[in-house]
Amino acid sequence: MSLADPHIALNSPQPAPRALNIVIIGLAITSSWGNGHATTYRGLVRELTRRGHNLLFLECDRPWYAHNRDMPRPPFGRTELYDSLHDLQLRFLPDIAAADLVIVGSYVQEGVPLGEWVTALLQRSPGLSAFYDIDTPVTLAKLHRHDYEYLAPHLIPRYDLYLSFTGGPTLRLLEQRFGSPRALPLYCSVDPELYFPEPRPFDFDLGYLGTYSPDRQPTLHRLLLQPARRLLHQRFVVAGPQYPDTIPWPANLRRVSHLAPADHRAFYNAQRFTLNVTRHDMIKAGYSPSVRLFEAAACGVPIISDSWDGLETLLKPGQEILLAQTSADVIAILRDLPEESRRAIAENARRAVLARHTAAHRARELEGYILTHAR
Fold it and tell me: Would the pTM count as exceeding 0.85?
């Protein structure tokens, strides 16, 4: 498999056993501004429609998305905007009542009363209800604080399926402590039509893409800023918003305050290595891959990452991903790893991600869940 080939063939999208009617009520699909949900939903909806299913995506119309819509009319499935829960109930009750599956996503406005209405409605029909948690560790932390912004404990047993961005022990926790009838992994994924290698000269030796987070910053400091201060002849980059003005950036580091999704592929391909840094809640839960992990791998960029439980089930350390705990670890990789090894790790990771973690794989997984657990 050559990194120079941007369109490695995936398994052909064979039609599903039968066409399913699926309704997704999600945070956003028309705008990726300030949220990572849109990317996940776009890939999933597109691949489900390619498999012959009928998709209706319902998005609450909000001004911050209305002014920043990078895909106002998704060219797959059917997308409709609604103003309020009452508006949704008036206009889309027939679609929801007739669906084989209705998904309510995390961070959806009025999520608790919406979930109560959907689960009650589908109890009288053969269709399944599911909660799709794109933020599982955050959700569990909110439940622990009695913060029921979009999900409450009493709702979890009422959803037929709990689809989670986090796998591993968290799934059993959702079943045993919170009473979910079925907690199943539906990880993030990558769209290989958008993320692929583009051979070009490297602008940076190591880069990082991510919004500022106080719990990630110590790791970013240790694994990127400290190496930058030691390796003055090498070039570094950090892209993402909300970083405080008080951070003393090294002179050989470039700051990019905002990077639109359309520019992510070029950003990854400009790096010799890219850094993956994981939030504390995700490390604590384990089995919580970031979409950035899959995107970078699909672009053929070798990844240096912090470590967490379950990472080895996704990418093999030393063969498909490089792990670092200290700045010395990163410095040794940047300075001493042979180019042949660097390329082999990148190619191995790309092969692994395209084999198991594309939007097409997630569509087939979701389809299987529906057919397996249908009433």
Answer: yes
